[in-house]
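#struct-help
A.M.: can someone run this one for me? Single chain, 200 residues.
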Amino acid sequence: MFKLIKSSMLVLFSACCLTFSFINDAQAQSKPAYISDSLFVYLHSGPSNQFRIVGTVNAGQSVTYLAQDADTGYVQIQVDDKTGWLPKEHVTYTPGLASQLEQLKAKYANHNEATLALEQQRDELNSQLNKAVAERQTAQEQLEQANRAYEQLKVQLENTQGSIWEKPMVLGSLILLAGLIFGLILPLLLPKNRDSERWM
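D.P.: on it. Structure tokens below:
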């Protein structure tokens, strides 16, 4: 009895090991593939056209290669959640035109986004440049106004200085002031000895 249980367990263990090794081999053999550029391909349940059709695969569709039947030349693929067989000549390992078109569309969309971003940056830089040019022009106008005001004040100052010396009252006042200063300084310059000798 014990030998029977032991042999049954050994058989079950061997079956499990074989199953896991088969699954690992199948996963190791599986690789990405593409359907060649035909309209569509029938997917059969077995490795020949004698098996029933379980679906179709569109041209250029991405699939997963699982195995190949050397006798019939059929390959097993997985697409979405379906597994089936189809002739080997319909499977290629390089992207078809449809797949390349999708990749090109994605690249084109990325380039468009980059172009739009660059155009937006260009517009912002143009706006900043226009603003800086307007500020520079305003500063130049203010500088010109300040220069004109300076010239006007300079002319007014020159006219004011000339008119002060031309007025007779101002000129007479200056002469009177000069005479007064001269009269105050002159006695200080004369010698005092003569005055002291005369009184004695």
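A.M.: thanks! The first helix runs from residue 2 to 29.
D.P.: also worth noting: Helices lie at 2-29, 97-166, 168-189, 193-199.
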